[in-house]
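USER:
Try writing one entry.

ASSISTANT:
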Amino acid sequence: MREYPIPFNEEQRLRAIHAVPGLTEENETLFDTICDATRKLLDCPVAHISVVEDTTQWYKSVVGIELGRMPRENSFCTYAIMADEPMVIPDLSADPRFKRHPMVAEGGPQARFYAGVPLVLSSGHRFGSLCALDFNPHEPPSEATIAILRNLGDAVVAALERKVPERRDPEEETGPSAFITLIGHELRTPLTVMFGSLRLLEGRVTDAVDAKLALGARRSVEHLSELIETIISFSDATTGELRLNERHVDLGELVAEVADLHLPGADAAGKSLVLDPVAVKTPLFVDAEQVRLALTALVLNAVFHGGAGIHINVGLDDEGNPEIRVIDDGRLSDHVELAELYKPFVVGGDLNQRGTRGGLGLGLPLTRKLVELHGGNFEVEAEENRTSAIIRLPRWRLEAA
């Protein structure tokens, strides 16, 4: 299983990397000088400037060790590019993300300390990191040291782009970011009214079915409100980036909330949704809103396109990775191509089968991107009389909690 995270804007990020003329594997003395200053600053034997591409990582410069192009799953920097903030790991062997990493575990070089700053192009896209490595643990560096490391990272970008990168003022709201904030503000008011009305309606209805409908509608409004707040707080419209708001989450409770949502309208007629006993009792370190969004998309997909009996199953795979399965007793139509299911605006594979029933075909591609953002895998398994949509998350998210 691939365990490293993939940025939400990965396609745009890769295009931005390939558009930088100076970002080639040909080395220049200037970059060696910056790396040498970095390892001296952090008192480490190794420093490098990494470039994280689709499946591999290579180096603009390395000092203190011989390193060639390596698979992305062996890269620490693939984690460092997930945020604008520096990534400092005092002891890699004590971090659940890296303790089984081939560069850390017994039999490998047994790296212990990592400190790196993401390298951010003037477009806002992160392409790699300037970092230092040691084979002994360190105390966390001071704020002053990290500030100097950031400056060295800025020098790398300036040298690559042959200009001083334009740093965006986070306090200045212009263009797409201002648009998101404005839309968020405009959406909050009607959602607040809807939420209040549904609360009043819940208190008045006496029929059990109507009460369930009102409860499901109110929870959907709550979910939408929380999702809007997450988008405003953790997204960047300029680059298409989405960051995770990670916290410790009771996976059983989260899945139960989704299972309690009322199945929509006529499409749900005669269909049942069952939550199987949850086998994962330990909290999970995830973005609750994004996992809920992904799981809701899978449940709705099963309602609109699956069989009559739908089950949600939560457990562990053979390697101890937590996984969520949405299983229905239907079979995929003959026209459906599994490889096409993960592409936006495609329902199945045949052009004539594209449509808006149950949405625009965005649910599965969105789910895949949200799961990959968590470092997990998403897949659909099709059998003769059973279809399973599987969210599989890396086990370190269980250990981190």
